[in-house]
C-alpha cells in the first residue's frame, strides 16, 4: 500500500525538518481533495484525480496512485461515472492510517 523506500528517499532528499513540512502539506491538500471527491466534485474529475495521483506518488501511496491513474483514464475517455470514488476514498483513508503509523515507527527507530 505504501512504498516505504520512496518515503525514506524523499526524507533523505529534503531533510528531516523539510520532510515534516512536506508531509503536513501533502496531508492537508490530499485530505481536502478527498473531501471534495467524497461530496460532489466541483473541479473536473480528471484534474482532481491527476492532482491526487501526483501527490500520492510523491509520498509513496502506491494503491491510491494506481486507483487515481485508472480513474483519470476513465474520466479522460468520458467515462467518469464509472470511477469508483468510494473505493478510492477508502483506499486513501487506509493508506493514510498506515502511513502515519509507519512514520511513528520511523521516528522511534
Automatic annotation (TrEMBL):
Gene3D superfamilies given in the database record: HPT domain
Annotated positions of the Phosphohistidine modification: 50
Keywords associated with the record: Phosphoprotein, Two-component regulatory system
Annotated ranges, domain HPt: 11-109
Pfam name, any one: Hpt
Claim: Phosphoprotein is one of the keywords in the record: yes
Signal peptide region: none
Protein name: Hpt domain-containing protein
Organism of derivation: Cereibacter johrii
Lineage, broadest ranks: Bacteria, Pseudomonadati, Pseudomonadota, Alphaproteobacteria, Rhodobacterales
Amino acid at each position: 500500500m505504501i512504498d516505504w523506500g520512496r518515503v525514506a528517499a524523499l526524507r533523505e532528499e529534503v531533510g528531516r525538518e523539510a520532510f515534516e513540512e512536506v508531509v503536513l502539506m501533502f496531508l492537508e491538500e490530499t485530505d481536502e481533495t478527498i473531501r471534495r471527491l467524497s461530496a460532489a466534485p466541483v473541479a473536473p474529475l480528471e484534474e482532481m484525480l491527476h492532482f491526487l495521483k501526483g501527490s500520492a506518488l510523491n509520498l509513496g501511496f502506491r494503491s491510491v496512485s494506481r486507483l487515481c491513474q485508472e480513474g483519470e483514464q476513465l474520466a479522460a475517455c468520458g467515462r467518469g461515472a464509472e470511477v469508483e470514488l468510494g473505493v478510492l476514498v477508502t483506499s486513501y483513508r487506509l493508506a493514510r492510517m498506515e502511513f502515519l503509523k509507519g512514520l511513528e515507527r520511523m521516528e522511534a527507530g
